[in-house]
Design a protein that fits this description.
The protein is an alpha/beta fold. It has 2 domains: about 5-160 and about 310-435, 3-Layer(bba) Sandwich (FAD/NAD(P)-binding domain); about 160-305, Elongation Factor Tu (Ef-tu), domain 3 (Beta Barrel), CATH 2.40.30. It has helices at about 10-20, 65-75, 80-85, 95-110, 140-150, 195-205, 215-220, 230, 285-290, 315-320, 345-365, 375-385, 410-435; strands at about 5, 25-30, 55, 85, 90-95, 115-120, 130, 155-160, 160-165, 175, 185-190, 260-265, 275, 305, 310-315, 335. The strands form 4 sheets. The protein has a 6-stranded antiparallel β-sheet with strand order 10-11-12-13-9-14. A 5-stranded parallel β-sheet has the order 6-2-1-7-16, with helices on one face. The chain has a 3-stranded antiparallel β-sheet with strand order 3-5-4. The two termini are about 20 Å apart. The mean pLDDT is about 90.
Length: about 425
């Protein structure tokens, strides 16, 4: 019988191993702890939560709540363990981190067809492999991964914020490319001098997030990737000669060139998401919301993803992976977790579910599953495999990556509830038509 090597016993690796085990496929699960720890990990157990004990919102009319419900339907190990070890946290699913890790570890160890090997794999082994080594993949294995991924392996995540198109004030912004080149690919947010100086002063006084030690060390290597707030502190006009330069643009409201312009670039084919060009940032999320909402047209903007700057090993998945999480050129190798470009604990776990299901289906002679983009898991799978995505950066679950509803609903809560109900209906119909997983 075919055996699968799963590398890494984080959330994604545990989900992948669990799905393979459920399908009757033997697994060698490699975990380098406790022999070796990454700079961020400290506990010996599997599925260690490092940065937070929260697995985000529980309510169905939220992206995280919808994603967890889809995961539950697909037979997740992580979701039931989280609820069994939950602690009070308002509307979020927070867990006792030690109890959660211990419970996941216990259940993985209880499976006779999962063979746990406590050792560091320094190169990708032959055979069927799922790589789920996380954002701090060891240097030796990263070198091996780079041999099959080439230049499509990154070690630093410098992502700008992404906003929902629907939430922009269309009366204050305009579509245009500089000097009329292109097909009006950018949304332009013009500022006069007074607006610019107000924004500038807020930006240079905003509070940054504290960098972890391993991130600070990495910043020294990537000094060329400058946060927008650091650039601003170099002088009042520095941004106007950089990402906010107004040259080649005319504001149709005034017929003149603006004093400064923030450009938004389409993030997906549907045009539901736009990123702030040149706005990689290390500001706290609340500060990003406060300061960036001062930009013309963004007063009521819905931030689908905030900017981040940290060490994060991830591959350029649109160039390398299909939507089933297998490599385009090496069908026996799947990736799962944050290394694929999904951002967050539950997103990583969800990708592990899909990698495990699809590896099992392939080995059992079945077609792999590609869920509809109308589901949250399907939308994430589509995002990481969409070759039209420019400057690929990690993405977490959010309602903006789902296709819009046929009927526009202005009430946000009702809109999200309707999107969630559509997703679960589509998932149920898909699984029924395909005989389950």
């Amino acid at each position: 019988m075919n055996k699968v090597t799963v590398i890494g016993a984080g959330l994604a690796g545990c989900e992948a191993a669990w799905q393979l085990s459920n399908a009757g496929i033997p697994v060698d699960l490699y975990e380098m702890k406790p022999k070796k720890y990454s700079p961020a990990h400290k506990y010996h157990g599997f599925a260690e939560l490092v940065c937070s004990n929260s697995l985000k919102a529980s309510r169905l009319d939220s992206a995280a709540g919808l994603l967890k419900e889809e995961m539950r339907i697909l037979g997740s190990i992580i979701v039931p363990c989280a609820y069994e070890t939950s602690v009070a946290a308002g509307g979020a699913l927070a867990v006792d981190r030690t109890a959660f890790s211990d419970l996941v570890t216990e259940r993985i160890k209880s499976r006779e067809n999962i063979n746990i090997i406590y050792d560091e794999l320094k190169e990708i082994p032959d055979g069927n492999v799922i790589i789920a080594t996380g954002p701090l993949t060891s240097d030796a294995l990263a070198d091996s991964i780079s041999e099959i991924c080439g230049s499509y392996l990154s070690f630093f995540d410098a992502a700008a914020p992404i906003v929902s198109f629907d939430s922009l004030d269309k009366n204050l912004v305009f579509f245009a490319s500089r000097y009329g080149r292109g097909d009006d690919d950018y949304i332009n947010c013009p500022m006069n001098k007074e607006e610019y100086l107000e924004f500038y002063n807020a930006l240079i006084s905003a509070e940054s997030a504290e960098l972890k030690e391993h991130d600070r060390e990495f910043f020294k290597v990537y000094e060329g990737c400058m946060p927008i707030e650091v650039l601003a502190k170099r002088g009042e006009d520095t941004m106007r000669f950089g990402p906010l330069k107004p040259v080649g643009l005319t504001d149709p409201r005034t017929g003149k060139r603006p004093y400064a312009v923030v450009q938004l670039r389409k993030e997906n084919n549907e045009g539901t998401m736009y990123n702030l060009v040149g706005f990689q940032t290390n500001l706290k999320f609340g500060e990003q919301k406060r300061v960036f909402s001062m930009i013309t047209g963004l007063k009521d903007a819905e931030f689908l993803r905030y900017g981040v700057m940290h060490r994060n090993s991830f591959i350029n998945s649109p160039k390398l992976l299909d939507s089933d999480f297998s490599m385009k050129e090496h069908k026996n190798i799947f990736f799962a977790g944050q290394i694929t470009g999904v951002e967050g604990y539950i997103e990583s776990a969800a990708s592990g579910i899909m990698a495990g299901i699809n590896m099992a289906r392939r080995l059992n002679g079945k077609e792999t599953l590609t869920l509809s983009k109308e589901t949250m898991i399907g939308a994430l799978s589509s995002y990481i495999s969409d070759e039209s995505v420019k400057d690929f950066q990690p993405m977490g679950c959010n309602m903006g990556i789902l296709p819009p509803l046929e009927t526009n609903i202005r009430d946000k809560k009702l809109k999200y509830q309707t999107l969630a109900e559509r997703s679960l209906k589509v998932l149920d119909e898909y699984l029924n038509s395909n005989g389950g997983i």
